[in-house]
Amino acid sequence: MASVRLRAVAKNYGAVRAIHEVNLDVEHREFVVLVGPSGCGKSTLLRMIAGLETISGGEITLDDQVINDVPAGGRGVAMVFQNYALYPHMTAAQNMAFGLENIGMAREEINRRIAHAASTLKIEELLQRRPKAMSGGQRQRIAIGRAIVRDPKVFLFDEPLSNLDAALRVQMRIEIAKLHQRLDATMIYVTHDQVEAMTLADKIVVLSAGRIEQVGTPLELYHTPRNTFVAGFIGSPKMNIIDGKVAAITPEGVDVETPSGRLAIAAEPAGLAIGDSVRVGIRPEHMGVGKPGDGLAVVVEVVERLGDETMVYGTIGDGTSVVVKLDGTARVRTGETIPISVAATDGHLFTMDGEALRRTPAALEGLFDV
Amino acid sequence: MSSAVSRARMVRLRDGLSALAFLAPFLVFYLLFLVYPFGLGIWISFHDWELVGSFREWIGLWNYEDMFADPQFWRAVRNTLTFAAMTVPVMVGLALLLALGLNRQTRIHGALRAIFFTSNVLSVTVVTLIWIMVLSPDRGLIAQLFRSLGLEPIAFLASTTWAMPAIVATTVWWGIGFPMILFLAGLQQIPGELYEAARLDNASPWRRFTRITLPALRRTFVLVAILQVIGQLQIFGQVLIMTGGGPSQSTRSLVQTIYETGFADWQLGYASAMSLFLFVVMFVASMAQLYIARQED
Ligand SMILES: Nc1ncnc2c1ncn2[C@@H]1O[C@H](COP(=O)(O)OP(=O)(O)OP(=O)(O)O)[C@@H](O)[C@H]1O
Ligand SMILES: [Mg+2]
């Protein structure tokens, strides 16, 4: 068993509060990904769990034991650093053995564990090499190997793939996913790459400025973001946010008058009255070309043809930029105005503060069945 | 075919010439102030050559034969090697300890770093004056310390046992700043993440020191050691001012002997021969250190 709980955990750097009373539960065998923009406190949170940063307030428990004052080495956690942090004067095997020697493990057991980790990660031929003589991807594997041999309760990863090139990143991402299945281990993983977050996570934690914005499965965050921040952070390209006013409240949801046309959104009108300002959120992939006069009138500024899909960058009446994702054969030309239609069940509605209004059951139908 | 070859040759010639043009300023200084005097020194060492006047007689290897048979010379060599053997390890070890202790980013540590480096910029006259006062058996700091403990003060510089260690202490105090800065620079190159990884790996402070810090400082170590050996084998000013080579020749150094032979006795040929000997010793010592460093890499 290895579950981690954070209760009102806070971190101050002098007068600056980097983490504001965060609560989080990480269950046994769960793969939790912390995402958020640069400087939001992901690393700080991870390092507090690792024991590399002191905890200014609150409590962190590992298997119901408070570990606030347990030194890093005694927590049973292993960390993979962004720059690998391999000991440069040791071979790969020595790097892996170091932590085990320090706790006085028998040599045979150390060798057995290294051999096992090496075969798991396919790094047998690297064992006698120094980090200097390895590529970035190979070093990454050794760093993961060093974590595995310790047989930790919790693996911590701080942007482990960000120094790799795009192709290798995809490959290592898949290997980490496999590793998680094979080891049945609890993993907490920091990234600012939302594709990594979506593909790896059982549970994503979206952080912003030291606070948790939302916790949920990848699909929950995608389909029911709690606010415009999460809506904008999850999904690529970003969700379009368009200001408008409530024009009508219908049994199916809310009709919104935008600067470029009227949109129906299947959201609960809780507390809304006709004439209220609201924000409509529509993902680029949920937009399509409609009949003339339909939906939103978008002035096309740039068209990017990627083969399988076409990205259209344009503006609407009040100058707001929008991105539309159409299929590869869409007939769109720069300068023309196209009618963009959106299914009511695909739209999101937010208050002017950015809080999401609940989507109707009709809109959510079938989304989580996968 | 042949035109291609000649074009390639032209390009190589042009590259060579432009390289030479860039090197020229340094080359001129190098030839004028290093190679030429060095060659001249060798040339002079084969002569009976008076400093002033025009008496210059080719005597072949006689200066060298004299030198190797000269007990004064061997005494100076022994003193110099003893001095270096005492100073270099103390200097290197203490500089490393200071660097380790002061490698923290607080105001106090910064101030201490500056203080330890300051003695480095003083001239040999100032340094020796300070230490002559500190070591003075009448009113010196150490003499007072001895008296307060009820001990008889020692006249360090007048004692054949203590004069050399006193000069060693003076030299270490004077020169500790620079190797300390080199070690600090080396320490600051070590990524902090390594120590964090080591903490997660349950490494004791001693293991962190021996397995991360020391290996990372190896190059700095070699550099500091070579610079120190070269520097300390040329010990001169401190001896000249503090003891004049005494008591009873116990601190006379090689450079001092060279200086007196050349500029007091005017025997420039003989002095050059001894200089060349010192050069060979320093050269061999440096190469040996570099060689050892390579072996372990
Ligand atoms: N040692 C420190 N002293 C003072 N402030 C710090 C320190 N470390 C981090 N911070 C601040 O705490 C906040 C969170 O930093 P953190 O490194 O956790 O961000 P992050 O989410 O990991 O960002 P990135 O994606 O760039 O790695 C930042 O505003 C940062 O400036
Ligand atoms: Mg970070």
Task: Give the count of structural domains of chain A.
Answer: 2
CATH topology of the largest domain in chain A: the name is Rossmann fold
Domain count of chain B? 2
- SSE series of chain B: HEEHHHHHHHHHHHHH
CATH class of the largest domain in chain A: Alpha Beta
Subcellular location (chain A): Cell inner membrane
GO molecular function (chain A): ABC-type maltose transporter activity; ATP binding; ATP hydrolysis activity
Membrane topology (chain A): Peripheral membrane protein
Keywords (chain A): ATP-binding, Nucleotide-binding, Transport
Short description:
Chain A: Keywords: ATP-binding, Nucleotide-binding, Transport. Chain A is α+β, with helices and mostly antiparallel strands.
Describe this protein's structure.
- The complex is a heterodimer of chains A (370) and B (297).
- Chain A has helices at residues 42-50, 92-102, 107-121, 136-149, 166-183, 194-200, 218-223, 228-233, 361-364; strands at residues 4-13, 16-26, 31-35, 57-62, 65-66, 77-80, 154-158, 186-190, 203-208, 211-216, 240-250, 253-258, 261-265, 277-282, 287-289, 296-305, 309-315, 321-327, 337-342, 348-350.
- With 370 residues, chain A is of the alpha+beta class.
- Chain A has a 6-stranded mixed sheet, sandwiched between helices.
- In chain A, strand 1 (4-13) and strand 2 (16-26) form a beta hairpin.
- Chain A starts with a strand and ends in a 6-residue tail after the last helix.
- Chain B has 297 residues and is mostly helical.
- In chain B, strand 1 (47-49) and strand 2 form a beta hairpin.
- Bound molecules: adenosine-5'-triphosphate and magnesium ion.
- Magnesium ion binds next to helix 1 of chain A.
Reconstruct the topology from this structure:
The complex is a heterodimer of chains A (370) and B (297).
Chain A: E1 4-13, E2 16-26, E3 31-35, H1 42-50, E4 57-62, E5 65-66, E6 77-80, H2 92-102, H3 107-121, H4 136-149, E7 154-158, H5 166-183, E8 186-190, H6 194-200, E9 203-208, E10 211-216, H7 218-223, H8 228-233, E11 240-250, E12 253-258, E13 261-265, E14 277-282, E15 287-289, E16 296-305, E17 309-315, E18 321-327, E19 337-342, E20 348-350, H9 361-364
Parallel strand pairs in A: 3-8, 3-9, 6-7, 7-8
Antiparallel strand pairs in A: 1-2, 1-4, 4-5, 9-10, 11-12, 11-14, 12-13, 14-20, 15-19, 16-17, 16-19, 17-18
Chain B: H1 2-45, E1 47-49, E2 56-58, H2 62-68, H3 71-102, H4 107-118, H5 124-135, H6 141-148, H7 163-175, H8 177-188, H9 192-200, H10 205-216, H11 218-232, H12 237-242, H13 254-263, H14 268-296
Bound molecules: adenosine-5'-triphosphate (ATP) and magnesium ion (MG).
